[in-house]
Amino acid sequence: MKNRKGQFLVGVLVLLVILAIVVPTMVKYVQNEARWSVKQGQNTNAFQLAESAVDRGYQKIAESTSTWESIQDGEVQTGFNFDTIYSDLSGGTYTIRITSGPENDEVTILTVGRDKMNRETRALKVVYSKGDVNSAMYANGISINGGVVVDWGPIKSRGSITLTGASDVEYPRKFAVGSITGWATTSPCTDNLENWAYNCAPGVPPPPTVSLTEYAATAQKTKCSTAVPFRFPAGASPAGSCYWPAAASFNGTTMSSTGTVYVNGNLSINNGFLWGNLIVTGNLSFNGTGGGAYVIPTAGAPAPFTGGIPEDAWREYRKFDTVALDEYYGDNGLATLNATFEFQSGGPTPNKRSGVKINPHVRGFTYCGGALSGGGGTVFHGVVFSPSGIAGLSGNVYVFYDDNVADAILTNTIYPTRISWLDSKQEWPFP
Q: Buried b / exposed e across 226-256, counting CB within 10 Å, b at 16+?
């Protein structure tokens, strides 16, 4: 009997020892779990605040083209330089810094969120591009056929892209909210080399609103002489300017210096060369051949041309680009561009890397508010933008992209496009 009582006592002692070990551990675990839960909640709040800060920063960079340009010029934006603590949200506080870069025409938004107990912080670094008409051709639906050639920059459409015949080739990159003809329609995305259909990332942002008022004012100050060799028609207002308040017809017109031509109505062009911005609110049609002939110098060279072949033009040809030369216009090897490029109709046909045997109609920004049409010999060097859609180009039409022209387009609104989104190690920047 005594042995049984002794055994029972030993068992109780063992149990007490176990409880003495386990209970504090469990209490400690529960306490830590509570702290971890609180910490996780605070961390989540800080992250949500950092995300909200990105949204606020986006609204700032998208408020106007002047704001975007001022950021590009390095101007400090009050309230967006880690100089303000925002407390408009219940979960805590946040702060924002907006700077230019890392690449040209990009903006970086750096945000830090802190929970209301001031114990946890999270930071985000988001890079945006301007999201402008940064493409060779941009329209609300694009349908081209025949031998239409688009080089050095992408095609972007807020509708579908339909390319038939010789136009259906593996370049340039194509971005469409709708479908892209000639490629599988069952998959929402594509190969990330050429086609992005159904608005898959990076997608196609809404088109900016072109500042027609500014262009009209500029055209009224630009000189378009009726004398030889310029040959602009009468009817401009004021007389001798480049602003036509109604429909017009150009025949063999030539611009010897850059400017803006504005036609408030339909315009037909037969031969000739326009240098600068061509703004047509109605239908725009081209006939005959272009009159421009020039050499694009090395990028960064001085006026009259501010740059050469766009430095990223090789990206349009990744589907087939190799170390071989002359696989596309300007090609000087794998992901390598020639330093110069010549537009010239005379003489022997040059190698693709160094030139093309044609003269442009327009060297600059072409805006068409109505129907755009053109056949063999129609050549653009710059950007072609039609908010109503493009469906009338066929034959041997060429569009060569110029990123300098794209950057200079005057708009009333912008829709910045997100390039990257990353966690950051940025600490809370205030004492």
A: eeeeebbeeebeeeebbbbeebbebebbbbe
